[in-house]
Amino acid sequence: MSEAAKKDWRQPIVDYLCYGILPEDPRRRNDIRRRVPHFISYKDTLYRRSFKGVLLRCLGDEERKSSMYYASINGLAEAFNKTLCNLLNKVVTKSKRDWHERMEEALWAYRITYRTLTQATPCSLSFGVEVVLPLEHQIPFLRLNIQEGLIDEENVELRLAELKALDEKRLEAKKNLECYQVQLSRSFNKKVRLRCFQVGDQVLTVRRPIITSHKSRGKFTPKWDGPYAIQEEYLNGAYKLVDTHGVKIGPINGKFLKKLTLNICDAMGKTHLKEREFLQWNLDAKVLQAYN
């Protein structure tokens, strides 16, 4: 037995269900005997019986913390909550106090809506068949007419065929999702301009809250701060800067930097000159007002 299997919490339960093997520790042995009636092993996979009788697949520590099953890692929970809130805003009243009563309607609309990413509905990817809408009972549809003419055995065979094709349908949806992500990435990368710098280059940085070495001086403050020198280069286009006094700043992404040129130096000098002229004019105005 490998070390990963020993650390897996499912392995002792599977050993007892399949081979009748119990651990040597008496407490551990009693604990497994007490928990085993709630589990079932089928095709080398452990399932747990829920309160409603549904079999739930048991996950290991690595699967439970991976992005596929742990939705908070890759943002799936946040993305779904955002979609759910948008649906609730369309069905709730102005007071928005009945949102809990409209939750089922919003979830129903989400499950039967055709998704562009997967080219399918969430319900069809979960159960292998589309939902029967109430409108289909009022207006005769071909799908319902075919199923009504089947006997029980034929209906069971049709349902089994749909379940067998479910894995293939999910793989196709995954392929469509990957293709859509590639297209989205290409359209985004067309607008991206890479800025590459070398160690020792003189650059300017965008005035952002991450640079707290200088205080803001009002609306005449230039948009770019500097000059700085590239001290170190990191991966993914990040750089570490140092100013004329030796103060280190960063790392900062290269999209917030631009190379220092003579034209930029002249523009910065004119900006500071305008600022000094404005301050002098403001001071003269205050002195004249006090004199009057």
Provide structural commentary.
The protein is of the alpha+beta class and 292 residues long. The protein has three domains: 3-64, no CATH class; 114-189, no CATH class; 202-291, no CATH class. The chain is built from 13 helices and eight strands. The chain has a five-stranded antiparallel β-sheet with strand order 7-6-5-4-8, with no helix packed on it. Strands 1-2-3 form a three-stranded antiparallel β-sheet. β2 (45-49) and β3 (55-57) form a beta hairpin. α6 packs across α7. The termini are far apart. 5% of the residues are buried.
How many helices? The count is 13
Proportion of residues in helical segments: 40-55%
Mean pLDDT: 76
Task: Write down the overall geometry.
Answer: extended
Overall structural class, as computed from helix and strand content, comes to alpha+beta
The count of DSSP E runs of length 2 or more, i.e. the number of strands, is 8
Radius of gyration: 32 Å
Oligomerization status of the protein chains: single chain
Q: Write the H/E string, N to C.
A: HHHEEEHHHHHHHHHEEEEEH
Biggest sheet: strands side by side, in what order? 7-6-5-4-8
Largest sheet: 5 strands, antiparallel
Low-confidence stretches: 1-5, 269-276, 278-283
Q: What is the total domain count?
A: 3
User: Distance between the terminal alpha carbons, to the nearest Å?
Assistant: 96 Å
Beta-strand content estimate: 5-15%
Question: What would a concise description of this structure say?
Answer:
The protein is 49% helix and 14% strand.
Top keywords for this entry?
single chain, 292 residues, alpha+beta, 3 domains, five-stranded antiparallel β-sheet, three-stranded antiparallel β-sheet, 13 helices, 49% helix, extended, disordered N terminus
